[in-house]
Every structure is written in structure tokens, then in C-alpha cells.
Specification:
Largest sheet: 8 strands, mixed
Strand order of the largest sheet: 3-2-1-4-5-8-9-10
Organism: Gloeobacter kilaueensis (strain ATCC BAA-2537 / CCAP 1431/1 / ULC 316 / JS1)
Distance between the termini: 53 Å
Strand content: 5-15%
Catalytic activity: UDP-alpha-D-glucose + 2 NAD(+) + H2O = UDP-alpha-D-glucuronate + 2 NADH + 3 H(+)
Structural class: alpha/beta
Protein name: UDP-glucose 6-dehydrogenase
Number of strands: 16
CATH class of the largest domain: Alpha Beta
CATH topology of the largest domain: Rossmann fold
Bound molecules: uridine-5'-diphosphate-xylopyranose
GO molecular function: NAD binding; UDP-glucose 6-dehydrogenase activity
Number of domains: 2
Mean pLDDT: 95
Pathway: Nucleotide-sugar biosynthesis; UDP-alpha-D-glucuronate biosynthesis; UDP-alpha-D-glucuronate from UDP-alpha-D-glucose: step 1/1
């Protein structure tokens, strides 16, 4: 099939590359011309394991191409994915200006051939109908065609449109986005018509109707637009709540002398609970959970419903960062004038994404308290981090960050941090305190090196 992907961010690029890999002809479009040029040269805008190789192979096979021309994409593709960003506004509601602009422009370029317009951007419940309206508006707004006789632009009559809107939320995690796209737990399709549903079944046939007998079909959930949109929010809100829940349990564990790791392991053996997303720590960050939980609260409010549980989910997450500061204050007393080393800036390992990263929030609080903060991350650069926190010092060596530091705080569980020689860590660190904000170090080993171990909920 011929597929257009509008917006080559995380979701768009990964989706486009994976669809090309299974045999579709994919046109990835972005209005950032410089980005498109870099993609054509094989330079990825994000760090994502396996993506660069996949894109290169797809480009070499002729199934993936990049363009900054929306007209080209709408002209050639029978399925058009909208995969642009929907960041949070200060009040928590999502900023839909990019979706609005794309939907209108798609409408301006549509002709009378049938198209399926797929919303993959995370948009509030009810946005499917709104996108339809914008596409129709776009088609009605005059398109200045090539200048006619005498240089006067010719206004074309709007074509009779044949299109359906589909909601097809993504559930991919940064750091394993390619793997997740090839191995999803389910594919969700909210469709307005049977025709659109059939197009989507064909598009995803590699997953939902595999030809190889050894591949199990991925469950396909076909539903209405609003339910599909809600599934995405409900899934992320549930996962975020699960983490906030275990963090709350961790905070009680600390006070009663229990170990949250053992508690999480044991409750996770209950199949109804499950063992994933029960790691207590400094809380969740990233581009999805904070934005989506806030957006759901905002949707509730819009419809006169107060989301008290989700507000608590957000509040627990917010205070979880402050607990790191409290732990340092308890151990070091006065923080003003101290040097604190931070290991890990990304919101989680195997990504260079620092959006809503707990590490940067902790660094900001420490700087505000008069500390000097020296950080290390295996892939986040000083330039990247300093855009958000200008006074943060970033070193390319994890061990160098320890020199002159009164305490070490581990904020991202990069595997290499658990592998350092703790005797060396102990020798370099001026102070004795190690706050393990991700419970990823071995407590006994840290203590064995003569350091004070402070974990989360243990
Ligand atoms: C998430 C969802 O998992 C994905 O399905 C959705 O499409 C996008 O949002 P992502 O943001 O990439 O993916 O990261 P994820 O691995 O889910 O982690 C989110 C945050 O939760 C990270 O900050 C992580 O450190 C934290 N986390 C995760 C915990 O604190 N404890 C856990 O047990 C799991």
C-alpha cells in the first residue's frame, strides 16, 4: 500500500520505517526542510536503538522516502498518518495547533479519491470528529493553483471528498520503539466505516494476519473513534498510576522498615497485578505520561468530572522528586555550598530524551538551594541539558563527576552505573552519601565500599 506519514518525530519516523520494512511504500513528510535533508543523508533526529539501520535499509530498498512537500504525500498515499506533536500547555491541556494545521492542509490537497486519514498523534477524546471538520474546512478554503493567464491565480472549486478518519493510537516506548512496533501487545483501530477498517486491516496484515505459521497474530481491537482515543489515555494513566502507587508504598515502607523491592516482587506475582511497572524510584517523566495524565484530567474537567485519582497520581509523582532532596538534606543537613554529582539525565535509560526528566527537576531544585551540580549521562550532551538547566555542569565521564562531590545521586538506571568499581567510586567521592534514586545499585556492595546507601523504600 502507499502510505504517507506527516510529522517525522518519534512516532512518525518509527511507524514509517516499520511499515516500509513490511513492504509498504512509505512517504515520510516533515515541514522542517533541514530535518528532511538530514534524514535523506541518513542522520536521525533522535537516538533510538535500531532505527538508523532500519531507515537506511528501507531507503536502500526504495520503500521509504522523505519529503517536505505535503502535496506530494497527499497525492500519492491512500493512507495518511498524522503523527505530529501534541505538547502540554501550561494548564495541562494539549496544544493541538500542529494537528489543526496538518488536518487543514491535508484537506486543501485532497482530491476526490478515497483516503484514510489516521490520527496517531495523541489527541483528546472527540478529536476524530474535529479532524474531519478541519479537513473539510481545508478543502473548502480556496487553493491558489498555478497562475493562469495574466498571472492571476486560479481558484479551484472544492472537490467532492471521500475520506474516513481513523484513530490508531501508538503504545511504543522510547528506547525500544522499533521492537515495540514489531511486537505490539495489541493494535487498536477506531474506525468510522467498514471500508476504513478494511484498509487498516490490510495495512497491518503483517501483524494481524501473518502468513508465516510460526507467527502468532497480534490481537486487533476495532472500535469507535472515541473509544480508541480513550484507550491510549487510559493505558498511560493506568501505568503512571501503577508507578505512583508503588512509590507511595515505598514511602510507607521507609517509615515502617519494610523493603519495597520485596513487596513489589511479591504483589507482582499475583497475575491480576502483574510484575511490570512496579519499580519504585524518583518517579516517571518523558514525553507521554506527564502530558497524557494531565490531558485526561483536563478532559474530565471539561466535561464536569473531577479526576481525583489521576490528580493524586500526578501529585505523588511531583513529590517523589522532592523526596530525593529530603534524603540529601537528612544526610548532609545543609545543602547550600555542597557539590552534588548526578548520574543519569535522560528520563529513562537507552534514550537521550530529557523531556520532563526527573533528573533535571532534581538538578534545578539543588541549584536553587545553592548547590553546585555536576552530572553525567552516557548520551545526553551538556548542550542538550543546559538548554533546560543552564547552570548544570555536565561531564563526559561518570567518575569525573564524583570528584569533589559531597554526594552521588543516581537518577537514571543506565546499566553501566551498576558496573562501576565501587572502591573507585568511594575513593573519588569527597562525601560518603549515595542516593540511589532508581534502586539500581547493590545496597550491600555500596555499604561494603564504606559508603552510606540511601535507596527508595528500602
Ligand atoms: C510510555 C508508555 O509505556 C508507552 O506505551 C506510550 O506509548 C508512551 O509512554 P515511555 O514514556 O517511552 O513510554 O517510557 P516508559 O518505559 O513507559 O517509562 C515511563 C517513565 O516511567 C520513565 O520515567 C520510567 O523511568 C518510569 N518508570 C517506569 C518507573 O519509574 N517505574 C517503573 O516501574 C517503570
Amino acid at each position: 500500500m502507499k502510505v504517507g506519514v506527516i510529522g517525522t518525530g518519534y512516532v512518525g519516523l518509527v511507524t514509517g520505517a516499520c511499515l516500509a520494512r513490511v513492504g509498504h511504500q512509505v512517504f515520510c513528510m516533515d515541514n522542517d526542510t533541514a530535518k528532511v535533508e538530514r534524514l535523506k543523508q541518513g542522520i536521525m533526529p533522535i537516538y533510538e536503538p535500531g532505527l538508523e539501520e532500519l531507515v537506511q535499509q528501507d531507503v536502500d530498498s526504495g520503500l521509504l522516502s522523505f519529503t517536505d512537500s505535503l502535496a506530494t504525500v497527499v497525492q500519492h498515499a491512500e493512507v495518511l498518518f498524522i503523527t505530529v506533536g501534541t505538547p502540554s500547555r501550561p494548564d495541562g491541556s494539549p496544544d493541538l495547533s500542529a494537528v489543526r494545521a496538518v488536518a487543514r492542509s491535508v484537506g486543501q490537497h485532497l482530491d476526490s479519491r478515497y483516503r484514510v486519514i489516521v490520527n496517531k498523534s495523541t489527541v483528546p477524546v472527540g478529536s476524530g470528529n474535529w479532524v474531519r471538520m478541519l479537513v473539510e474546512d481545508g478543502a473548502r478554503s480556496p487553493v491558489a493553483a498555478a497562475a493562469g493567464d495574466g498571472g492571476v491565480a486560479v481558484l479551484q472549486a472544492p472537490p467532492e471528498l471521500h475520506f474516513d478518519i481513523v484513530s490508531n493510537p501508538e503504545f511504543l516506548r522510547e528506547g525500544s520503539a522499533v521492537w515495540d512496533t514489531f511486537n505490539p501487545d495489541r493494535i487498536v483501530i477506531g474506525a468510522e466505516s467498514e471500508r476504513a477498517e478494511q484498509v487498516m486491516r490490510e495495512l497491518y496484515s503483517y501483524w494481524v494476519a501473518p502468513e508465516e505459521p510460526d507467527r502468532t497474530p497480534v490481537p486487533l481491537v476495532v472500535t469507535d473513534l472515541a473509544s480508541a482515543e480513550m484507550i491510549k489515555y487510559a493505558a498511560n494513566a493506568f501505568l503512571a498510576t501503577k508507578i505512583s502507587f508503588i512509590n507511595e508504598i515505598a514511602n510507607i515502607c521507609e517509615r515502617v522498615g519494610a523493603d519495597v523491592s520485596r513487596v513489589a516482587q511479591a504483589i507482582g506475582l499475583d497475575k491480576r497485578i502483574g510484575n511490570q511497572f512496579l519499580n519504585a524510584g524518583a518517579g516517571w517523566g518523558g514525553s507521554c505520561f506527564p502530558k497524557d495524565v494531565s490531558a485526561l484530567v483536563s478532559t474530565g474537567q471539561e466535561y464536569g468530572y473531577e479526576c481525583s485519582l489521576l490528580r493524586a497520581t500526578l501529585a505523588v509523582n511531583d513529590t517523589q522528586r522532592k523526596r530525593i532532596i529530603e534524603k540529601l538534606q537528612r544526610e548532609l543537613r545543609i545543602l547550600k555550598g555542597r557539590t552534588i554529582a548526578i548520574w543519569g539525565l535522560a528520563f529513562k535509560p537507552h534514550t537521550d530524551d530529557i523531556r520532563s526528566a526527573p533528573a533535571l527537576e532534581v538538578a534545578t531544585q539543588l541549584l536553587n538551594l545553592g548547590c553546585r551540580v555536576v552530572a553525567h549521562d552516557p548520551i545526553v550532551t551538556a548542550a542538550q541539558a543546559q538548554v533546560q538547566v543552564p547552570d548544570l555542569q555536565v561531564t563526559p565521564s561518570a567518575l569525573a563527576a564524583l570528584e569533589q562531590a559531597d554526594a552521588l545521586v543516581v537518577m537514571t538506571e543506565w546499566p553501566e552505573y551498576a558496573q562501576f568499581d565501587l572502591a573507585e567510586v568511594s575513593r573519588l567521592l569527597r562525601g560518603r552519601v549515595v542516593v540511589d534514586g532508581r534502586n539500581c545499585l547493590k545496597r550491600e556492595a555500596v555499604q561494603g565500599a564504606g559508603l552510606v546507601y540511601v535507596g527508595i523504600g528500602r
